[in-house]
Design brief:
This is AB hydrolase-1 domain-containing protein. It holds the Pfam family Abhydrolase_1. Keywords: Hydrolase. InterPro entries: AB_hydrolase_1 (IPR000073), AB_hydrolase_fold (IPR029058), AB_hydrolase_sf (IPR050266). The chain is α/β, with parallel strands linked by helices. It contains seven helices and seven strands. It has a seven-stranded mixed β-sheet, with helices on both faces. β6, α6 and β7 form a beta-alpha-beta unit. α2 packs across α3. The N and C termini lie far apart (37 Å).
Length: 216
């Protein structure tokens, strides 16, 4: 495999890189696709194929998904984002991030922490960014590892300074009316798409049309 398709950190024996597919094309932007919990690098492949051509498209399997490493702990948004960062040198900036469910939290963390100008836009597919204390893990280890329920990530998204497009599934309770209102007030575009949290991915061509603003 040539250096152009191998992450710079691949030769460091102490570092375990996550698994990914890199698809190259003749032109267009770079795209990073991030799946949700329980998925892997194949979950958004149909959507990627339905979108216009890209110069490079990266589909990753987040840690503990697919063939990626499964560390004993460390499953916070920042842990996932750091894993992605270690392979993202293969993408030519600027990068458009398209992310589903929990992967959208990872995508937002990437956009907030990576260098200026690397990420151009973020598409969120049915994911909330608000805190949900009712879901807080009583187990201190679990909450320390995931850092999910007690933190409101919405403020981070509002301050990204890049276009953010949120696709909210019509029959999903993931993103409530109040959060949609806050997003809209912050200048974040919110579009309702058919389906529930799981089935909203079932029609890649329709999703691609919503993302690009072009008819199916």
């Amino acid at each position: 495999m040539s250096r152009s398709t191998t992450p710079a950190l691949a030769g460091v024996p102490e570092i375990q890189l996550i698994d990914f597919d890199l698809v190259t094309g003749p032109a267009g932007p770079s795209r990073l696709f991030l799946h949700g919990f329980g998925g892997d690098k194949h979950q958004l492949r149909g959507l990627g194929d339905a979108l216009p051509q890209a110069s490079r498209s990266m589909y990753v399997s987040l840690r503990a998904h697919g063939d990626s490493p499964r560390p004993a702990w460390g499953y916070s948004v920042l842990d996932f984002a750091a894993d992605v960062h270690r392979v993202a040198d293969l993408l030519r900036p600027p990068v458009d991030v398209i992310a589903y469910s929990y992967g959208a939290l990872v995508g937002a963390a990437c956009a907030a922490t990576w260098g200026d100008g690397l990420i151009r836009s973020l598409v969120v597919i049915d994911q909330s960014f608000t805190a949900d204390p009712a879901q807080h893990e009583a187990d201190e280890w679990a909450e320390g590892s995931y850092l999910r329920w007690m933190y409101r990530y919405g403020r981070m998204v509002e301050l990204l300074g890049i276009p953010v497009h949120v696709l909210a599934a019509q029959h999903s309770d993931m993103i409530g009316r109040e959060e949609r209102g806050r997003m809209s007030a912050a200048g974040i575009r919110v579009t309702t798409i058919p389906g529930d949290h799981g089935s909203c991915l079932d029609d890649p061509a329709r999703l691609a049309a919503v993302i690009t603003g072009r008819p199916c």
